[in-house]
Amino acid sequence: MTCCAFFDKETGECIETMEEHIMTGLELIEKRYIARNYGAFLGKLLGLQKEKADELLRLAYIFHDVGKGLGEFQKRKQGFKYHEYYSALIAREILKDWGKAGIVASTAILLHHHDWIRDGIPQKKRLKLCPECRKLFKKLTGLEVPETISATSTEELTETFRNKLRSVYAILLPVVVADNFSASKNRLGKGTYLGKEILESSKLYGVV
Predict the structure, then answer these.
(1) How deeply is 114 buried, as exposed, middle or buried, from its count of CB atoms within 10 A (0-12, 13-18, 19+)?
(2) Which of 119, 123, 174, 203 is the most buried (most CB within 10 A)?
(3) From CA 100, how far away is CA 159, in angstroms rounded?
(4) 5 vs 22: CA distance, rounded Å
């Protein structure tokens, strides 16, 4: 099984693999943000050296859709409802050694579709990631991805959003731009309108 980021709703065919989605978005982040010294700005907000801020931004993008790697999503082959919630919980665990900066990045991941208000999230005790997805994320980052995750409170992330709004958005903006850019470039015309605008602007400024 290939770890998939986007399935065709009608056929269940994998239109965009997770690796394609990640690598295309990372290319934009490197050229549009990191190469333009964005890490220096981000580092000041997070109390990190530029190189560490660059690394955290890359990780935030790599893990923004890690929740799509849950086995039930990959087997169902349609829709990833609440994947940003699961992604944030997984990222919070993976980035725990980053301290407060890791919490800020996890909060940005939670918000990358701007769905702050959620109703009816399945409160399952154990959610399992598919082995292929875990292997992919480890290959790309060298970091261990938990095999299972519990649906738990995001109160800590909510507080971070309230108290560290500027820092959260400093990570959120590049992640959202790269996410929509990658979707528009890879999904055979099935990307978002925002993604199409980002793709066009990126061509205009010679970023891609």
Answers:
(1) exposed
(2) 174
(3) 12
(4) 9
Contacts 24+ apart (CB under 8 A), 152-160: 152/89, 154/85, 154/88, 154/89, 154/110, 156/92, 156/103, 157/88, 157/92, 157/103, 157/106, 157/107, 157/110, 160/100, 160/103, 160/104, 160/107
Residue with tokens 């919980």: 89
Q: Does the global pTM surpass 0.70? A: yes
Over the stretch 152-168, which tens digit does the pLDDT of each residue have? 888 899 899 899 999 99
Contact 151, 122 (CB under 8 A): yes
Cβ atoms of residues 83 and 112 within 8 Å? no
Start-to-end C-alpha separation, the chain: 30
Q: pLDDT (tens digit, 9 = 90+) per residue, 16-49? A: 999 999 999 999 999 999 999 999 999 999 999 9
Domains detected in the chain = 12-177 (1.10.3210.30)
Find where tokens 């269940």 sit.
12
